[in-house]
Design brief:
By secondary structure, the protein is mostly helical. 75% of the residues lie in helices and 4% in strands. Keywords: Membrane, Transmembrane, Transmembrane helix.
Amino acid sequence: MKDKLFNQKDLIAYFIVAAIGASLQIVVSSLLQEWFKVSYENGVLLGYISSFFIGFFLTKLLAFNAKNSAKTRREMVKFAMVSVISCLITVYGASALYNFSISQNGIYIFTLPGSVKTVNLNKLFSHTFGMGLSFISNYILHKTFTFKNTGFYERLKSLLNLN
């Protein structure tokens, strides 16, 4: 039962790790857009990159019980490969949904009660949706590829003639 793809323990642990990474992504992305006038798409990308390293170590230590695997380099390479796919899903999924939402419904702005701070709901929901799609693909790929001995790393290493 432990090898089951969607076992409850791994799914809950991964959700907690992903929530930490998602929170970091949203904070970094929002601050970059607001303080440094970085574009929405670049803000999402830089937020994603900022959460990469913390995501790897939290995922390794907490989510898939791989803290004692002694294969950190191998897992880091595979994690990076999965993260490139995930980054594309997050950035372009969020960007496409954001552009679609403003073309269909305009921009929705919410002012936080008792504050002058405004939140662009289109951006927030689009970014959250992109991260949700990424969460699903990440969970499956990390569980079945990154933290499993699949032989892929050895083949890649041999192909690149690395020792």
